[in-house]
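Structure (tokenized):
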């Protein structure tokens, strides 16, 4: 049976949990009951004029763009089995960059700015995440991962387009690029035949 790990979801859950743990180390605010960080679509922040309870007074992480890392695109479509030593044909993994919007959706504007600055400070402190320096959520299927977080500074025009697409009024926010997320479809691997003979047919004039 082929296996496709829910890599995007699992990695964002890792990001959410570790940011949540970092914020819990700061003094709490009056409107910060429960989890401070949620994965949700900020485009649905308002539902018929009412805030969704799941994102009210939270830091909301929203995926707004997915792109392929083209510098790692040209890789060989084969690999050497580490156990048997045989050659296997397999398509190389896809490496993704995820553009994330971290939005402080707080009723109190002072607290929104506080939450946002704390999030920025945390990602300044820890910009690289892997299985040795971060906490995995309970029941996560991830066994290995490695990604970087870097801040993106869109122009005013780009911000206007982003919030227009999201369909809401601009909230205190910051954008990050999550780099080099590896995604691979694990299917039954086709074994390649071993190269036994090399024929050189070359003439020099």
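Design, position by position:
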């Amino acid at each position: 049976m082929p296996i496709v790990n829910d890599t995007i979801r699992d990695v964002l859950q890792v990001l959410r949990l570790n940011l949540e743990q970092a914020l819990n180390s700061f003094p709490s605010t009056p409107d910060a009951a429960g989890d401070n960080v949620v994965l949700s679509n900020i485009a649905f922040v308002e539902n018929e004029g009412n805030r969704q309870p799941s994102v009210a007074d939270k830091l909301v992480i929203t995926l707004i763009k997915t792109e392929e890392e083209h510098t790692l695109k040209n890789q060989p479509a084969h690999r050497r089995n580490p156990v048997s030593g045989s050659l296997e044909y397999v398509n190389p993994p896809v490496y993704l960059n995820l553009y994330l919007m971290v939005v402080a959706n707080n009723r109190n504007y002072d607290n929104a700015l506080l939450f946002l600055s704390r999030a920025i400070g945390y990602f300044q402190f820890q910009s690289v995440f892997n299985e040795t320096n971060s906490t995995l959520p309970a029941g996560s299927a991830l066994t290995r991962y490695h990604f970087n977080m870097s801040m993106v500074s869109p122009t005013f025009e780009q911000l206007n387009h982003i919030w227009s697409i999201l369909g809401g009024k601009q909230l205190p926010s910051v954008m990050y690029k999550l780099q080099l997320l590896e995604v691979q479809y694990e299917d039954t691997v086709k074994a390649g035949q071993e190269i036994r003979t090399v024929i050189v047919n070359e003439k020099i004039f």
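Reviewer-requested clarification: The two ends are 54 Å apart (CA to CA). The chain has a mean pLDDT of 80.
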